[in-house]
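Residues determine shape. We examine one folded chain.
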Amino acid sequence: MLNNQVVLVSGGSNGIGADCVRQFAQQGARVVIGFNRGRDRADALMRELPGQGHAVMHVPLEDSAAHAAIAQSVEQSFGRLDILVNSAGYTQRIAHSDLDTLTPELFNQLLTANAGGTYSLTRALMPLLKQSGAGLVVNVSSVSAFAGSGSNIAYCAAKAAMDTMTIALARAFGPAVRFVCVSPASVDTGFVQGRSREEIEKKAAKSPLGRLVVPHDVALAVLACATHLKTATGTRIVIDGGASL
C-alpha cells in the first residue's frame, strides 16, 4: 500500500495516465491528476477515485514557468511529492519517408514537448522528490526509442532522449530518487490520430504473445515500479507482448 504518499501523473486525464491515476489511488496514494486540455475528464476521474485528498492541476508540457508554479502548488497543498509519472505527450502520424511534412520546426516542436517538457517538469519537482527520501520518477516511454519505429521520426528521437535522460538522472540522483522507463508498443488508445483499432489488433496478433496491450497493462507496470521493483533504477521495462523482439 502507498498510504499517505503523493503521486503526480502528467497526462493523467485519459489513456495510460488515467489508468495510472486509478491504480495509485486504489493503493491508498493521494493523486494529483495533471491535465493539459482535458479539465472535464480530469474532474470526472477525480470524482470516481477511492480515498480522499486528490487534486487536479493544469500541467502543460511546454511551459517551464508553469512547471515551477506546479511545484510550488504541490508543496503548498501536500507538503511532499513521492512519485512523478511522466505520462503526458503527443504526436502526429507522419511516414518516416515523408521528410517534407516533418519539417525541422515540427521536429523540434515534438522533441521539445515530449522530451524537453518531461525534463522541465522533472527538474521543477526534483527538490520535493529528493525530500521524500524514496522518490520515484516513472517515464512512460515507448519501444520507438530503441526500435526506431513509431508515429514519426521525431517521436522516436524524443523517446530515445527520454530513455537516455532516465539513465543519466538515475546515476546522478540515487539513492534518494529512482528513475525508470516503462516502454509500451502500440496501446489500445486514441493517442495516434488516424490509427484504427483494427490496425493495432493486426500488429498485436503478430507478436509472440498475440494479444493487445491495453492501458491497464501499462499502468500495472508503472505501479509495480513503486510497489515491487524497489531496486530498479535507470532501466527500461518493456510492455509490448514481445512485439519488439
In short: The helical segments are 15-26, 39-48, 64-78, 104-132, 144-147, 153-173, 197-205, 215-227. The domain at 6-239 is CATH 3.40.50.720 (Rossmann fold). The longest strand covers residues 177-184.
